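tokens incoming
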């Protein structure tokens, strides 16, 4: 029988935190696959158990454990499944005898020998379900707010010709990475959780894997465009505000190209070595193909943060720099210096711990607080930008003057007529 079907006393809690539940399912799937390989090899090359005329019990998978072949009259004893946070540590042994009729029933039964950790009551399960519904509402509101603010910010940078420059082009790409990330979250939720009757732990469809792949690409692009923002800020300080438009293609290559290359390597690796489920199992060792480049981007950004802080301090305290230039340095650096430590600090902290530790805190930071990062970026780089505000006021004044002039002309025409 398939994994977990023969284990009636154990029912994984049906909540939307995929890490703990799916790791349990994957454990039994791996054990079953290994056992079936042994059974297949025994059938292809049958070996006598003791003598050519003596029968025995072949290897068997009972849905929980794999029982190796033994001759008739002998027995086999195994321990409880070794699953962290599911079964309590126990020295009990489960035994099965090989009889003329085949394997005997496990003695003692699994539910007596293997004690489960504290199982959540119905009230706890309902509380968890309510918790995840509330969290989904919060991050849906957060991403919706961020998407609206980001689209508005892109329109502002695109519509006003005076705002067309390398710096704002990089901002637009940075905003676009946040838009992709928000869209990827909504797409992933639609694909994975649109039908609650589906088991997302064992789901393995092209749409599901494509949604996860797109999500991983958007997250990588988000971190690497933040890295580009830091690199550009450092370049401005080093070149004393002498920008070169040729660098924009290098920035685009880093911001979009490196994540694309990383995701392609990850997809090929999963297809070749771990093509199971929906690829959303973060306990897989191949998850480091995604995690390592993100940590690298955060580490480089942190070094840039320290270097920019050092250069900024030198320029501000330098007597050769005028007050106007000091204000320019402060305006250009305050947003990026705020964002660099803000983005990725929690990622580094959580990366040091296994995925099953601090799941609630991880979800809160990555989904709820992370959903409002796009709004914060639009606020700092666009809506609170003095250059943007001045341009909006100037065009608003021109529009008002034009309207007043048109009204005056109409009134004059009516009067003279």
């Amino acid at each position: 029988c398939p994994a977990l079907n023969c284990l009636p006393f154990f029912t994984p809690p049906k909540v939307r935190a995929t890490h703990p539940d799916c790791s349990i399912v994957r454990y039994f799937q791996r054990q079953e696959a290994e056992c079936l390989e042994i059974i297949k090899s025994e059938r292809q090359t049958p070996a006598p158990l003791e003598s050519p005329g003596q029968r025995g019990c072949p290897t068997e998978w009972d849905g929980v454990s794999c029982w190796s072949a033994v001759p008739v009259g002998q027995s086999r004893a195994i321990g409880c499944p070794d699953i962290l946070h599911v079964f309590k540590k126990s020295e009990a042994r489960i035994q099965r005898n090989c009889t003329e009729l085949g394997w005997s029933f496990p003695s003692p039964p699994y539910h007596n020998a293997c004690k489960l950790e504290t199982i959540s009551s119905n009230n706890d399960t309902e509380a968890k379900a309510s918790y995840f519904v509330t969290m989904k509402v919060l991050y849906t509101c957060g991403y919706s707010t961020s998407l609206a603010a980001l689209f508005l910010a892109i329109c502002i940078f695109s519509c006003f010709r005076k705002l067309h420059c390398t710096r704002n082009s990089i901002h637009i790409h940075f905003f676009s990475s946040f838009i992709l990330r928000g869209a990827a979250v909504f797409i992933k939720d639609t694909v994975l959780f649109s039908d609650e009757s589906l088991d997302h732990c064992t789901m393995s469809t092209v749409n599901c894997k494509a949604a996860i792949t797109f999500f991983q690409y958007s997250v990588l692009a988000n971190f690497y465009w933040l890295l580009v923002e830091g690199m550009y800020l450092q370049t401005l300080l080093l070149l004393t505000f002498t920008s070169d438009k040729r660098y924009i293609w290098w920035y685009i290559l880093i911001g979009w190209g490196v994540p694309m290359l990383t995701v392609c390597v990850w997809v090929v690796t999963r297809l070749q070595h771990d093509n199971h489920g929906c690829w959303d199992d973060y306990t897989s060792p191949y998850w480091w193909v995604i995690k390592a480049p993100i940590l690298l981007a955060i580490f480089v950004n942190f070094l840039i943060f320290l270097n920019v802080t050092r250069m900024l301090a030198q320029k501000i305290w330098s007597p050769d720099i005028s007050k106007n230039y000091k204000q320019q340095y402060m305006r250009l650096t305050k947003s990026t210096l705020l964002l660099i430590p803000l983005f990725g600090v929690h990622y580094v902290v959580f990366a040091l711990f296994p995925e099953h530790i601090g799941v609630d805190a991880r979800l809160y930071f990555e989904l709820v607080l992370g959903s409002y990062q796009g709004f914060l970026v639009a606020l700092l780089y666009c809506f609170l930008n003095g250059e943007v505000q001045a341009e909006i006021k100037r065009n608003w004044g021109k529009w008002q003057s034009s309207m007043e002039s048109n009204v005056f002309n109409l009134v004059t025409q009516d009067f003279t007529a």
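note: The longest strand covers residues 94-99.
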